[in-house]
Write a structure and sequence with these properties.
13 helices, globular, alpha/beta, Rossmann fold, about 425 residues, about 20% strand, 14 strands
């Protein structure tokens, strides 16, 4: 019944957004910059040691996507029409319905029509060698496919990316057996406790990587370099990456894209691996919704500044045992400029909807800068390449980046 109800809602939403959907049906993600084409596969694991909090009659089911370096096709189809949607079928319709509540009907319809460059089940690139592995976790409510621009680009440069979709925390997950799981976890203050389900999902995936590389029927058999594994995420997913590094030494580096530490599991984490924290910029008060009294603006500004001081102190403690911890700020960006929804940011109108979510930076530019920074860090931390100018002096490569140094960057008491 629930699945049918959600499908009816999705159908109504997509039909209601027919005009913008038709207009943006050929919206295309930026092309990956690496030498390889990109493949994508859907993966499923079952953690028999855990009951699923979304349905305790089942063991915890973990759905994920694998992006990987793929062989270039012998004949390249012309035009965007040959590209696949980011998320197809009923799941794509359900996702569009959920997205509309966050980003508006027009932007949700545009993202529903977004064409990406990954090819489902494409053959692995023979010349790619063993791929370093990146385990990615999205922000609360989001899916790995909402970060496809960055993940495709990393795969095109030879990385294998496992993007985990934590059921119950994501807006909607459709398991391989057809079960539709809406968002029931991580709502409001419950996120401090419910985030543990994302932590446990990622830790289980890390334990399954060896089987993914060795099982006879695995699509990645013999393709993974398990001596080079990193964790990455946005928001909730960013702090999940920190927890994964603290708990599993298989993780050689961790990257947090604008994630706020909350709950003991995150606040008490002290990973020793190389760490990268990419922060958005504090919003300007002229971005705030109009019509509020002066006291609201004063209190809001004070709250934003307190939040930044808290975030700085928490990063100092969390990063205190890492010998290579870097914090970089992306000027002009707000919290959701790290998602692919930034591609449709021109359709996200109104101060109420944009406030603290999308900033003045061009969305495509934000994704390009973030992706290049993440790849530079991975190349250094996992592949052992010297830290280039993008890590040492990021503002010289991109004027929107600032290396946060001194007490603000971290290195405080443990």
């Amino acid at each position: 019944m629930l699945a049918r109800h959600l499908l009816r809602l999705a159908t109504c939403a997509v039909v209601g957004a027919a005009a913008p959907l038709a207009l943006f049906a050929q919206m295309t993600a930026p092309a990956p910059t690496g030498p390889h084409a990109v493949g994508r596969r859907l993966l499923t694991w079952v953690d028999s040691a855990r009951r699923d909090p979304t349905d305790t009659t089942h063991a915890r089911t973990i759905t994920a996507w694998l992006w990987y370096p793929a062989a270039k096709p012998a004949r390249v189809a012309r035009g965007d029409a040959a590209l696949q949607p980011a998320l197809d079928g009923a799941w794509g319709d359900l996702r569009a319905t959920a997205s509309a509540a966050k980003i508006g009907d027009a932007a949700a319809a545009a993202m529903r029509g977004l064409r990406v460059h990954a090819v489902t089940d494409a053959p692995w690139a023979r010349d790619a060698g063993r791929a370093p592995v990146l385990v990615f976790t999205p922000g609360n409510g989001w899916l790995p496919t909402d970060y496809g621009v960055m993940l495709e680009d990393l795969a095109s440069h030879g990385y294998a990316v496992v993007g985990v979709a934590p059921a119950g925390l994501a807006d909607v997950v459709v398991h391989g057996d057809g079960r539709v799981v809406p968002k029931t976890l991580g709502v409001g203050a419950a996120i401090a406790d419910d985030q543990r389900h994302a932590h446990d999902d990622v830790l289980h995936v890390l334990r399954q990587l060896r089987a993914l590389d060795t099982a006879s029927r695995s699509p990645a058999r013999g393709r993974l370099d398990l001596t080079r594994v990193a964790a990455l995420g946005h928001s909730l997913g960013g702090t999940t990456a920190i927890v994964a590094a603290a708990r599993d030494t298989l993780v050689r580096a961790a990257m947090n894209l604008d994630g706020d530490a909350m709950g003991a599991a995150v606040l008490d984490a002290r990973p020793r691996q190389p760490l990268l924290f990419v922060s958005s910029e504090l919003p300007a008060m002229d971005e705030a919704p109009a019509g509020r009294d002066s006291a609201w603006y004063v209190l809001t500004r004070q709250g934003v500044e307190r939040s930044e001081r808290r975030r700085t102190g928490e990063w100092a403690r969390i990063s205190s045992r890492s010998a290579d911890a870097r914090r970089v700020r992306l000027l002009g960006a707000r919290h959701l400029d790290f998602t692919d929804a930034a591609l449709a940011e021109s359709l996200i109108v109104g101060a109420e909807r944009r406030w603290m979510r999308w900033g003045p930076i061009d969305g495509t530019r934000a994704l390009r800068v973030t992706t290049d920074l993440v790849r530079a860090f991975l190349d250094h931390a996992l592949l052992g390449r010297p830290a280039d100018v993008l890590l040492e002096h990021p503002e010289r490569r991109y004027g929107e980046l600032r290396l946060v140094t001194g007490d603000e960057a971290g290195g405080g008491p443990a």
